[in-house]
Design goal:
With 315 residues, the protein is an alpha/beta fold. The protein has one domain: Vaccinia Virus protein VP39 (Rossmann fold). The longest helix is centred in the first third of the chain and has 18 residues. It is globular, with a radius of gyration of 23 Å. It binds S-adenosylmethionine. The site of S-adenosylmethionine (SAM) has 24 residues, from α1, α3 and β4.
């Protein structure tokens, strides 16, 4: 069902579409995604790694490498309390739980697709706090209790308004300095062919009223501005995600209070984990400061301009 007037979906509409996806999954016979090119996704046909809904979105080995390095980089020691947004069939959950091992503290899953999450329930035997929501809702989380928020391949299904609502509300649950890691986000403004191709594909879907699971987009400036205004620190943006730490709890701020809105840009998350420092940038990105609007012209000058325009263009 299309919402009238806008193709942006509400969280419960996204949940309905993922439930449908999970139900229809066996009929699709998806191969494992092995590469993402400007032309589209390359799949390994006949791979026996795809056993459950969601397995097709990539090998857990790549996630394992990234998450192990993230745990080290963020110095997550002792009991680690996690919130995972959009755990779906539990591909990412399984990897993170395995890596945390004895360090597992509370593990909250927030998702909008109950049927899809049944796959996660079958996959993972450890008790989890599963919250199936119909809108952005983090009210069940305790203040200052969370050490890590992970959103794997889910943020691109969340509209940029709801991304803001999550980022705003999660700050209360995150401990000060605790990180949020979002991997799987389509950021426009980095000149990435893959992302632009997905954007064109999305426009095609709108033109042809093709419904189903699809991706939302954001821009690098919007993301950087949002994180800065919400007081996040150590902001690192990749072409498909970002990490940032909770700063001081504040309201959304005006520019003059935020000061310099800076962020680091590194092309890829694995690159950053391997030591690529990228570049530090700021918003507005390489734009001049807006000057005050010029004063209106005096009436005589306007009349003269009109006369000259008429002389040249005849009207
Ligand atoms: C592509 S799946 C990713 C699942 C898993 N993290 C993985 O990497 O295999 C995206 C998941 O995000 C969930 N999702 C979409 N919008 C959401 C929202 N607003 N809040 C929480 N979860 C959401 C979907 O229901 C789905 O389970």
């Amino acid at each position: 069902m299309w919402s009238k007037g806008t193709p942006v979906k509400t969280p419960d509409e996204v949940g309905r579409d993922f439930n449908e996806y999970a139900k229809a999954w066996a009929e699709q016979g998806y191969g494992l995604e092995v590469e993402w090119t400007g032309d589209g996704i390359v799949r390994a046909d006949g791979s026996d790694e795809v056993k459950r809904p969601g397995d097709e979105w990539g090998s857990p080995d790549a996630l394992r490498r990234d998450y192990a390095a993230l745990i080290k980089k963020f110095g997550l020691t002792g009991d680690v309390n996690v919130v995972e947004i959009g755990a779906g069939g539990g591909r990412s959950t399984q990897v993170l739980l395995d890596l945390l091992g004895d360090q597992n503290g509370e593990y909250h899953v927030i998702d909008v697709a109950d049927v899809f999450v049944d796959t996660l329930r079958q996959r993972i035997s450890r008790p989890l706090d599963i919250h199936i929501v119909t809108d952005v809702d983090t009210s069940f989380l305790t203040k200052n209790s969370i050490d890590l928020v992970l959103a794997q391949s889910s943020w691109s299904h969340i509209s940029f308004y709801d991304q803001y609502r999550y980022l705003r509300d999660l700050r209360f649950a995150l401990k000060k300095g605790a990180p949020i890691v979002v991997s799987g986000l389509f950021v426009i403004g980095t000149g990435d062919d893959w992302t632009w191709n997905r954007y064109r594909r999305r426009v095609y879907q709108i033109d042809h009223r093709i419904d189903g699971v699809f991706h939302e987009f954001t821009s690098i400036s919007l993301l950087a501005e949002m994180l800065n205004r919400l007081g996040y620190t150590d902001i690192v943006i990749f072409n498909h995600g970002f990490t940032a730490r909770r700063g001081t709890l504040i309201d959304d701020q005006f520019t003059k209070e935020v000061g310099n809105m800076t962020f680091r840009y590194v092309p890829t998350l694995p690159g950053w984990l391997d030591g690529d420092k990228g570049v530090v940038s700021r918003v507005p990105v390489a734009l001049p400061v807006v000057k005050p609007a010029p004063k209106p012209l005096p009436a005589r000058a306007v009349a003269s301009l009109k006369r000259r325009t008429k002389a040249i263009f005849g009207s």
